[in-house]
């Protein structure tokens, strides 16, 4: 009788992939429960962390398709989380900036991510969590 264990179950890449899938699932669950969109988080976090940007620059920065970003920005602007203004140096470009309401929403969304992380890491001790983060930082060069 064959074992149900995956052939790569003892490989780090497989385990990292599964942990990543689990973490993404938990973030989606927490965001959905709060009726917010994770795509909004990426936009708001980039604007808060890296500053205002032209729409095309922002799309490239967060790895979103430019036309998809326009839809997200329309939604975020309607919620008053971002503002778009014409670039005085090039009237065809729009500059996007986060608003005070967007900053507050971002803090609330951070809390959802922290809750998802806490749920994911619940089986680990505080020392194990710290060690895991240090090891992952070494792997990614951070």
Automatic annotation (TrEMBL):
This is DNA-binding MarR family transcriptional regulator. PANTHER family: HTH-TYPE TRANSCRIPTIONAL REPRESSOR YETL (PTHR33164:SF43), TRANSCRIPTIONAL REGULATOR, MARR FAMILY (PTHR33164). Keywords: DNA-binding. Residues 9-141 form the HTH marR-type domain. SMART domains: HTH_MARR. GO terms for molecular function: DNA binding; DNA-binding transcription factor activity. It comes from the Bacteria. One of its GO terms (biological process) is response to stress. The lineage of its organism: Bacteria, Bacillati, Actinomycetota, Actinomycetes, Propionibacteriales. It comes from Kribbella antiqua. InterPro entries: HTH_MarR-typ (IPR000835), MarR/SlyA-like (IPR039422), WH-like_DNA-bd_sf (IPR036388), WH_DNA-bd_sf (IPR036390).
């Amino acid at each position: 009788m064959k074992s149900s264990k995956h052939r790569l179950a003892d490989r780090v890449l497989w385990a990292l992939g599964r942990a990543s899938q689990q973490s993404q699932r938990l973030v989606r669950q927490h965001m959905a429960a709060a009726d917010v969109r994770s795509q909004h988080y990426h936009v708001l976090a980039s604007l808060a962390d890296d500053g205002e940007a032209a729409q095309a620059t922002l799309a490239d920065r967060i790895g979103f398709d430019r036309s998809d970003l326009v839809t997200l920005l329309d939604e975020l602007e309607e919620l008053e989380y971002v503002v778009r203004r014409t670039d005085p140096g090039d009237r065809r470009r729009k500059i996007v900036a986060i608003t005070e309401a967007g900053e507050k929403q971002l803090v609330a969304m951070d809390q959802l991510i922290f809750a998802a992380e806490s749920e994911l890491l619940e089986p680990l001790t505080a020392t194990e969590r710290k060690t895991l983060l240090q090891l992952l930082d070494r792997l990614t060069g951070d």
